[in-house]
Design a protein that fits this description.
The strands form two sheets. This protein has a seven-stranded mixed sheet with strand order 3-2-1-4-5-9-8, with helices on both faces. Strands 6-7 form a two-stranded antiparallel sheet. With about 325 residues, it is of the alpha/beta class. It is globular, with a radius of gyration of 20 Å. Among the domains are: about 5-35, no CATH class; about 180-320, Rossmann fold, CATH 3.40.50. About 30% of the residues lie in helices and about 20% in strands. The chain contains twelve helices and nine strands. Bound molecules: S-adenosylmethionine. S-adenosylmethionine binds near residues 132 and 156.
């Protein structure tokens, strides 16, 4: 079976499933709905291109600095695609739409510079994969800056995927995946594989997701995954979203002494706060650097763990051995 027909197979109900559901039930009773998110509400209308939002505030000084870089105006004008409304981008940056766009640019810069340090220059023979891309916060910058590179993305939530199909560059090959750590992608196919703020919520199947990323990467290819690390743990404070949400849920974790536990080192190399049963944010995971080196190092060369490169999250840079 070709990998393109595997995309379809992943999303279709099994042929052996019997009896056939009525037409109006198909939407919520197919295989993907059981193993992914199909929201009841459609996505919101888009809110116009970034140039319509340049007056919205920018809080983070690192992001403000990007606006002063040479060539910034040209980057703004080149991205004529719509921005998603707040609910269709996981709430990122609230009403601060320009800052939302800048955050994608910062992450794009980190990715391409990390790849370059490993000798990877993106061109017409290269491919990039964004796992858990939501509505393309980062991918949109690749579409503008690397128009000849093949660009893939996927998300377990159907709305942002459909939003991208409708409103972003049609060259982006974006699909709705399930929670199973199996992607409809060929082996040894992409140069750069990344996920921002996805492993921070993945507890089960962590090793299998890593192995799947390794299978899809070309030999020598680079993976970048963000984590909440022991560095993040040590800096936990009430200006951080994750700190405030764990405080708000502290009754759910009687075994943890929140917030006092954050004044001591991580008690184990990986800590999982498990909370809601039916959400893609059902857990918050902290990975220590020693865990990453030992456990993720079984599959990849661990090149770098760069602190606070995606807000308070660290970026782990990995390389598939040649
Ligand atoms: C915190 S958001 C980050 C979105 C995006 N990476 C960004 O940085 O803007 C996490 C995203 O990962 C998606 N996600 C979570 N688990 C996933 C999985 N197993 N496969 C694909 N996407 C997943 C969620 O639906 C959500 O869009």
């Amino acid at each position: 079976m070709s990998w393109k027909s595997r995309v379809k197979a992943v999303l279709m109900p099994s042929e052996q499933a019997a009896p056939q559901p009525k037409a109006e039930q198909v939407k919520t009773s197919n295989l993907a709905s059981a193993l992914s998110i199909i929201p009841g509400q459609p996505y919101s209308p888009p809110i116009g291109p970034v140039t319509a939002h340049l007056a919205t505030p920018i809080f983070e000084s690192e992001l403000k600095a990007l606006t002063e870089r040479e060539g910034h105006q040209a980057l703004l004008e080149a991205d004529t695609w719509q921005l998603p409304d707040i609910p269709d981008r996981e709430g990122y940056y609230g009403e601060r739409h320009y800052e939302y766009w800048l955050s994608g640019l910062r992450d794009y810069n980190f990715l391409t510079e990390a790849a370059k340090r490993q000798g990877i220059e993106l061109n017409e023979n290269s491919a990039v994969f964004d796992w858990g891309c939501s509505s393309g916060r980062v991918l949109r910058h690749f579409a503008v800056r690397n128009p000849k590179t093949t660009l893939y993305g996927c998300d377990v939530n159907k709305n942002p995927v459909e939003w991208m199909h409708e409103h972003l560059d049609p060259r982006l090959q974006v699909f709705h995946n399930t929670y199973l750590p199996s992607q409809p992608m060929p082996d040894n196919h992409v140069d750069l594989f990344y996920a921002f703020s996805v492993f921070t919520h993945i507890d089960d199947y962590e090793d299998t997701y890593l192995l799947e990323a390794k299978r899809i990467l070309k030999p020598g290819g680079v993976a970048v995954f963000t984590i909440c690390s022991d560095h993040t743990w040590a800096m936990m404070n009430n200006k951080m979203v994750i700190y405030n949400s764990l405080i708000a849920m502290k009754e759910l974790f009687p075994e943890w002494d929140i917030p006092e536990c954050f004044s001591r080192p991580m008690p184990t190399e990986k800590v999982a706060f498990r909370h809601q049963a039916e959400s893609n944010y059902a857990t918050n995971i902290f990975h220590s650097a020693s865990y990453i080196k030992k456990r993720w190092g079984r599959y990849f060369e661990v090149v770098e763990i760069a602190h606070e490169r995606h807000g308070y999250q660290d970026c782990v840079v990995l390389r598939k051995p040649k």
